[in-house]
Design brief:
The protein is an all-alpha fold. It is built from 6 helices and no strands. The chain has 2 domains: 31 residues, no CATH class; 64 residues, no CATH class. It is elongated, with a radius of gyration of 22 Å.
Length: 119
C-alpha cells in the first residue's frame, strides 16, 4: 500500500486529496497545509441587513419559529437568513427557542455589549 493511500485511510480523506495536500506541502511548506478558508467570514450578513431582519422578526414575526420566520423574511422581504445556529442546537419549537434565549442573550451581550458613551 502506498504512503498516500495509508495517509488517506488514516485521515479519512481521498487519495486524490492527500496528493493535493502533499503537492501544496512540497510547494509551500507547512503553510500550504493551512486551510485557505481560514480567516474568511462565513454567513456574515452585510451591515444593516442583520438589524433590518431582527427588527422585522421582533415586530412582525415574534411568535414564529425560526424556520417559518426565515421563510417569511425571504418570501415577503427578500432577506435570506440562516437558521443553522438554532438547528445545530436542536431547537425546533418556540418553547425550545425561548428556553435557549437567556443563554443566547448572555453570550451575545458578553461578545458585543459596549458601555454607553453618555449616562
Amino acid at each position: 500500500m502506498s504512503s498516500q493511500k495509508q495517509a488517506a485511510s488514516q485521515l479519512v480523506l481521498s487519495v486524490r486529496q492527500v496528493a493535493r495536500l502533499f503537492a501544496r506541502y512540497k510547494r509551500d511548506g507547512p503553510a500550504g497545509l493551512v486551510s485557505r478558508q481560514r480567516g474568511q467570514r462565513n454567513h456574515v450578513l452585510p451591515d444593516g441587513l442583520r438589524g433590518q431582519a431582527l427588527s422585522l422578526v421582533r415586530t412582525r414575526y415574534v411568535d414564529f419559529g425560526p424556520t417559518l420566520a426565515h421563510e417569511k423574511l425571504l418570501e415577503l422581504h427578500g432577506l435570506r437568513m440562516s437558521v443553522e445556529t438554532l438547528r445545530l442546537r436542536g431547537i425546533c419549537t418556540m418553547d425550545e427557542a425561548n428556553a435557549y434565549l437567556p443563554e443566547f442573550m448572555q453570550d451575545y451581550n458578553r461578545r458585543f455589549a459596549r458601555a454607553a458613551r453618555n449616562d
